[in-house]
What does this fold into?
Amino acid sequence: MKLYTYFRSSAAYRVRIALHLKNLDYESVPVHLLQDGGQQHTATYAALNPNEAVPTLDDDGLILTQSLAIIEYLDEIHPNPPLLPGTAADRARIRAIAQTIACDIHPINNLRVLQHLAHSFDLSQAQRTAWYCHWVERGLRTVEKMLANDPRTGRFCHGDSPTLADCCLVPQLFNARRYGCSLAGLETVLRICAECEGLEAFVRAAPEHQPDAE
It folds into this structure.
């Protein structure tokens, strides 16, 4: 199994967490998103992933893209420990938390969006950071409301074992800290992230522990 990844990509970070939670061996294939004009744009890589993004998972010749789709695939073929456990209602809640991060927060703050803001609208670094933090802070406040005072929230986003939601939450918080976003009022989010960051799987998946870390 090969994972085409970039150490700071939050989408690739999600998949790395899932792989380590399931104790699956994989080969890390770094794709630098900034060097050489972005290695994700090369013809060789674009043939693997037409979206020219990371992650891409090669499972013995089966090529998979999109982090949530990859994680759900891994959960189906390697069901233990489950990342989408419980009833249909439980799984819907886990997906809702995960998608709030992966579909609402992340896409409008992706590298390609920040680059477009710089190149097409001549926004400064400070303006791009302000854009980034506005959407991250708003999104994480939404996640906080979804988690706080909900009896289904436990040590982790849903219950007392990590799920797909936690795989998404930790990378997003990493990015929030990296950009200096305000974390005020995120008591539940911060508590859960601290629980996650104490687990070996999350430590091994962290950006600073990747072979391409700078």
Residues 138 and 149 are 19 Å apart (CA to CA).
